[in-house]
């Protein structure tokens, strides 16, 4: 009952052009049926994400470990709440990150869980930068 | 099922079969001669009611499956086509959807009855555990069935429930992928759920056979909890139990029919009339009402894995009930303390159900934790403790003694009354609390609709005017894709002739093709065509309207609702109020205000609407006084336009509503007569046994 060949083939890597996304904006693309948020973070958002005491987080992880070095402004996360799979809303909640409307989990500007029932941070999909303005997800 | 029978059919042909396969003997010994305790009350008819409901669900389900398409792109539409185009499809669908709820109503009564009268105690442990297995299978079947219409709640319910398994350590993610057959809930998920939803009812039927077998070996429990000793304690199953069950089923059918014909959407969720959209989570996901207590338990535990364990544990714990409650006295009738704790437990379950439907915040979370504790405490603390400390009243020597001694020795049900009052009080307090929380989003005012109530009919004039408003105003942005031009000439609709509908259709340009040269072309509409949508696809609609796609209006009056709150949602069952959708749509059309109240900032390109959730709506004020001309002299005001177009949209959402209510009346007359006949027959049959 595992995914069949065509489903796996349809889940091949996709390329996303980042140039049209202005600072402070984000887009949602679908990969393997999952929404992927790509946020162009502002300086303020990056600072917020990095000034946190990592040890105090429910799922400790530095912001550096969640983005690609040299591309700190780009946050790429799977937009599926780690609690029960709803889609969090971007730019909402008290940490200016994501807010899940189903059971009230709040994520920060690095997609890390700060409040609510979700056990872990928003997952970072496998991706790499093909060029400065293009990424390949998958 | 209770051993070899000496039954011999009198008909020679049946004798011939009986010698080769003693099936008539089996039936005779199990359902005719089978001795049943003579003191059973009406709570014991729920076994028969459940068998009847299982048969009903399988029968309607098999027919529905003949018309249903299990494909993520087509499922929602195929369900709508069943309701609109299949002969009596609306009836089949209502019977099946409402039937699921009624099945659970009956099973909960059946389970609480077993709990109250100690039907799980020695020697009926296996019988009880088989029952818990049936209940688990029912929950799985009900959940997968709810996914099949592929609406928003179907999709997101499936997402949340399948994600429960991701809490399993190490292998969780693989289990979830296995359930999905993909990387998210999608077409493969729908296909396998359809397959399993078709399979599981037959598995249930198989376990029911075991359940009945075990029942007929151990014999039925009874309200006094003493085993039958002599022949005086029992009566033959037929006619006594048969006729009593028939009366019970007839009464249950009255309740069932009330929902099928008058409140078909009361037990469902308005969001499920919106097609599934993997990109948008509804703001408030709730499961069907029969899972709500367990959902409340899940949410009250702050840890994900612990929450999932608690939820499943709440059901599995029932299997251990025979060994948790070791009291010798079976029936709570003779257990003064157990009786009171039983009613407290019932109240806890109902309150948990109420909390499961509330948003997980503030007071609800705390209340949920307390009640979750109470739920488990009943099984793990109260019942084992009571078995040791309680002094039960003496039980009668035999069933016939109990029947003869039946006098007015009722103790005043003080505690139960107090519990019911406390329950109502706390629900009421909760609703005031949530009313405060929802402050700012005004409740739409009620209207008098021609189509409300048990004899409601559509006002033909309003339908025709509403069609005109739709065509001249709404149609520039909103589609009506489930409605065909031929529907305009169908009975129960706007009352046009076939020729008028054809003429109406021919005014539209419909895309067809490809022709012989392989090109698409436009031609005048025909009655069989559907209303063309103003935009080619959702993206085009979104792009042309500032990012908010105008929703299709075919189902809008059923897809929109607002919270009624306690106690209104209980009164609504009796008053048959189910016009939340039309009230909301009509209010929205009139809810625009030029002056934005202080303290409210609207995003760019949004307009202020009093009744829109969040108040910032992307649709500009769609209609003003005098915009559409009426030929019949009706006032050309926004109020009148709103009323007419809402009536029209109620018809597009449910074109067979008049037929539903008409048939409902006939069915009720029949059922009342039938139940009366059954009652008097039952009285006659039981005359000597009481």
From TrEMBL, chain A:
Domain of life: Bacteria
Catalytic reaction equation(s): a quinol + 2 Fe(III)-[cytochrome c](out) = a quinone + 2 Fe(II)-[cytochrome c](out) + 2 H(+)(out)
Signal peptide boundaries: none
GO function terms (MF aspect): 2 iron, 2 sulfur cluster binding; metal ion binding; quinol-cytochrome-c reductase activity
Needed cofactors: [2Fe-2S] cluster
Gene3D superfamilies, sorted: Rieske [2Fe-2S] iron-sulphur domain
Cellular-component GO terms for this entry: plasma membrane
Similarity comment: family membership: Belongs to the Rieske iron-sulfur protein family.
Protein's recorded name: Ubiquinol-cytochrome c reductase iron-sulfur subunit
Species annotation: Bradyrhizobium yuanmingense
Higher taxonomy: Bacteria, Pseudomonadati, Pseudomonadota, Alphaproteobacteria, Hyphomicrobiales
TrEMBL record, chain B:
Membrane topology reported for the UniProt record: Multi-pass membrane protein
Co-factor note (free text): Binds 2 heme groups non-covalently. Binds 1 heme c group covalently per subunit.
Keyword Heme in record: yes
GO CC field: membrane
Residue ranges constituting the Cytochrome c domain according to the UniProt record: 461-593
Protein's cellular compartments: Membrane
Coiled coil regions, renumbered to chain: none
Pfam families reported in the protein's UniProt record: Cytochrom_B_C (PF00032), Cytochrom_C1 (PF02167), Cytochrome_B (PF00033)
UniProt record, GO biological process: respiratory electron transport chain
Main localization (coarse): membrane
Transmembrane stretches, start-end: 42-69, 90-111, 126-148, 160-183, 195-215, 246-263, 305-324, 336-357, 363-387, 663-681
Keywords: Electron transport, Heme, Iron, Membrane, Metal-binding, Respiratory chain, Transmembrane, Transmembrane helix, Transport
Residues of the Cytochrome b/b6 C-terminal region profile domain: 227-397
One MF term in the entry's GO annotations: quinol-cytochrome-c reductase activity
Cofactor(s), by name: heme b; heme c
Subunit structure, as described in the record: The main subunits of complex b-c1 are: cytochrome b, cytochrome c1 and the Rieske protein.
Protein's job: Component of the ubiquinol-cytochrome c reductase complex (complex III or cytochrome b-c1 complex), which is a respiratory chain that generates an electrochemical potential coupled to ATP synthesis.
Protein name, as recorded: Cytochrome b
Species the sequence originates in: Bradyrhizobium yuanmingense
Organismal lineage: Bacteria, Pseudomonadati, Pseudomonadota, Alphaproteobacteria, Hyphomicrobiales
């Amino acid at each position: 009952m595992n995914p069949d060949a065509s489903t796996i083939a349809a889940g091949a890597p996709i390329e996303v052009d980042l140039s049209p996304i202005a600072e402070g904006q984000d887009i949602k693309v679908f990969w393997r049926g999952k929404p992927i948020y790509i946020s162009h973070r502002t300086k303020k958002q990056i600072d917020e994400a990095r000034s946190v005491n990592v040890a105090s987080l429910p799922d400790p992880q530095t912001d550096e470990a969640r983005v690609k070095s040299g591309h700190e402004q780009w946050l790429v996360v799977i937009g599926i709440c780690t609690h029960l799979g709803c889609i969090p809303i971007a730019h909402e909640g008290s940490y200016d990150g994501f807010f899940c409307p189903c059971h009230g989990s709040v994520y920060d500007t690095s997609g890390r869980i700060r409040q609510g029932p979700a056990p872990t941070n928003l997952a970072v999909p496998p991706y790499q930068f093909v060029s400065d303005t293009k990424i390949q997800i998958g | 099922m209770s051993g070899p029978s000496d039954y011999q059919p009198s008909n020679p042909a049946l004798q011939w079969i009986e010698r080769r396969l003693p099936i008539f003997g089996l039936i005779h010994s199990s359902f005719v001669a089978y001795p049943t305790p003579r003191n059973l009350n009406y709570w014991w008819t729920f076994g028969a009611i459940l068998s009847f409901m299982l048969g009903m669900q399988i029968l309607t389900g098999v027919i529905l499956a003949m018309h249903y398409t299990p494909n993520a792109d087509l499922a929602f539409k195929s369900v709508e086509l069943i309701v609109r185009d299949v002969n009596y499809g609306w009836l089949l669908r209502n019977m099946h959807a409402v039937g699921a709820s009624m099945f659970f109503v009956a099973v909960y009564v059946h389970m609480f009855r077993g709990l109250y009268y100690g039907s799980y105690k020695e020697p009926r442990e296996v019988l009880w555990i088989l029952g818990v297995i049936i209940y688990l299978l029912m929950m799985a079947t009900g959940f997968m069935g709810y996914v099949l219409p592929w609406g928003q709640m179907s999709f997101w319910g499936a997402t949340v429930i399948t994600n429960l398994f991701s809490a399993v350590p190490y292998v969780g993610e693989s289990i979830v992928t296995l359930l999905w057959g993909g990387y998210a809930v999608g077409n493969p998920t729908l296909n396998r759920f359809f397959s399993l939803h078709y399979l599981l009812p037959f598995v249930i039927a198989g376990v029911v056979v075991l359940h009945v077998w075990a029942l007929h070996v151990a014999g039925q429990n009874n309200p006094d909890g003493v085993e039958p000793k002599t022949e005086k304690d029992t009566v033959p199953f037929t006619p006594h139990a048969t006729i009593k069950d028939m009366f019970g089923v007839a009464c249950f059918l009255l309740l069932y029919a009330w929902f099928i014909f008058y409140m078909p959407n009361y037990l469902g969720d308005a969001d499920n009339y919106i097609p599934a959209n993997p990109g948008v989570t509804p703001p408030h996901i709730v499961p069907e009402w029969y899972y709500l207590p367990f959902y409340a338990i899940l949410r009250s535990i702050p840890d994900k894995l612990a929450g999932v364990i608690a939820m499943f544990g709440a059901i599995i714990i029932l299997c251990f009930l025979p060994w948790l409650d070791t009291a010798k006295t079976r029936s709570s009738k003779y257990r003064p303390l157990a009786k009171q704790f039983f009613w407290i437990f019932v109240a806890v379950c109902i309150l948990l159900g109420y909390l499961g439907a509330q948003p997980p915040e503030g007071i609800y979370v705390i209340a949920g934790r307390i009640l979750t504790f109470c739920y488990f405490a009943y099984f793990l603390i109260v019942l084992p403790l009571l078995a040791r400390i309680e002094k039960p009243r003496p039980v009668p020597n035999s069933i016939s003694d109990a029947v003869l001694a039946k006098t007015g020795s009722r103790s005043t049900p003080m505690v139960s009354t107090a519990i019911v009052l406390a329950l109502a009080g706390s629900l009421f307090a909760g609703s005031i609390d949530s009313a405060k929380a929802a402050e700012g989003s005004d409740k739409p005012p009620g209207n008098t609709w021609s189509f409300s109530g048990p004899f409601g009919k559509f006002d033909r004039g309003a339908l025709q005017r509403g069609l005109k408003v739709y065509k001249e105003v709404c149609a520039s942005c909103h589609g009506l894709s489930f409605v065909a031009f031929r529907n305009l000439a169908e009975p129960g609709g706007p009352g046009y002739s076939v020729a008028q509908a054809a003429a109406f259709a021919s005014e539209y340009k419909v895309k067809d093709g490809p022709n012989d040269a392989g090109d698409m072309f436009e031609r005048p509409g025909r009655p069989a065509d559907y209303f063309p949508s103003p935009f080619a696809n959702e993206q085009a609609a979104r792009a042309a309207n500032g990012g908010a796609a105008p929703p299709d209006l075919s189902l809008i009056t059923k897809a929109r609702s607002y919270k009624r709150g306690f106690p209104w949602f209980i009164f609504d069952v009796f008053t048959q109020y189910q016009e939340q959708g039309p009230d909301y749509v009509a209010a929205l059309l009139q809810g625009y205000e030029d002056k934005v109240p202080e303290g409210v900032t609207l995003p760019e390109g949004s307009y202020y609407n009093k009744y829109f959730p969040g108040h910032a709506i992307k649709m500009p004020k769609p209609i003003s006084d005098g915009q559409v001309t009426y030929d019949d002299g009706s006032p050309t005001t926004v109020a009148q336009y709103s009323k007419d177009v809402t009536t029209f949209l109620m018809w597009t959402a449910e074109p067979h509503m008049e037929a539903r209510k008409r048939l409902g009346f006939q069915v009720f007359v029949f059922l009342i007569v039938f139940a009366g006949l059954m009652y008097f027959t039952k009285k006659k049959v039981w005359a000597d046994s009481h």
